[in-house]
């Protein structure tokens, strides 16, 4: 899952990125409003964590422009200004959730996970698709009740497939949501991860529709 953290304080931004990365997201950073608007308008994110006090363009204006352009990704707003009037203004502008500063990273992660699940129509923390079960809070994987050890990359791939199990996911989309700009993003790298997972989970858990992409067996494909 791909997340963008928009925060002008470098220390807070780094802490948020690490927390999201540890929670199974591929986290990217942005520090000003103009760049945030451009990234949110042109890139595909599963979640954006947006501070309101940004240089260049304030976060509320950025959010309003995203929503006016039809961008529907979940947005968790951060702000040092915590009055109820400001929270109402943020929600009316299109925020999906609101977290006043200072905050605990554990709460941010919990809210982030819940937003992503709800956006995919899957409110439960445990995602079950066919024989596969993922606990998105504990970041654990099991098949038919038997625990399976998965690397961080393997877990991210399974979590993305589980959240979107009602459709076949093209390799290009999986690559975009799994790998950072500095990582290998070739199709053969993705095929190697799929092959490892099939050895661990069994050959029939992850399906392939040739020429289209991958899906989890048990979803509506």
Automatic annotation (TrEMBL):
One of the GO biological process terms: regulation of DNA-templated transcription
- Show the InterPro entries listed in the entry: CheY-like_superfamily, OmpR/PhoB-type_DNA-bd, Sig_transdc_resp-reg_receiver, WalR-like, WH-like_DNA-bd_sf
Keyword set, alphabetical order:
DNA-binding, Phosphoprotein, Transcription, Transcription regulation, Two-component regulatory system
Residue numbers bearing the 4-aspartylphosphate modification: 51
Name the Pfam families for this protein.
Response_reg (PF00072), Trans_reg_C (PF00486)
Domain (OmpR/PhoB-type): residue spans on this chain = 124-218
Q: Identify one Gene Ontology CC term for this UniProt entry.
A: protein-DNA complex
Q: What protein does this entry describe?
A: DNA-binding response regulator
Recall the GO molecular function terms of this protein's record. phosphorelay response regulator activity; transcription cis-regulatory region binding
Source organism per entry reads Phaeovulum veldkampii DSM 11550
Q: Which residues bind DNA?
A: 124-218
Q: Where is the Response regulatory domain?
A: 2-116
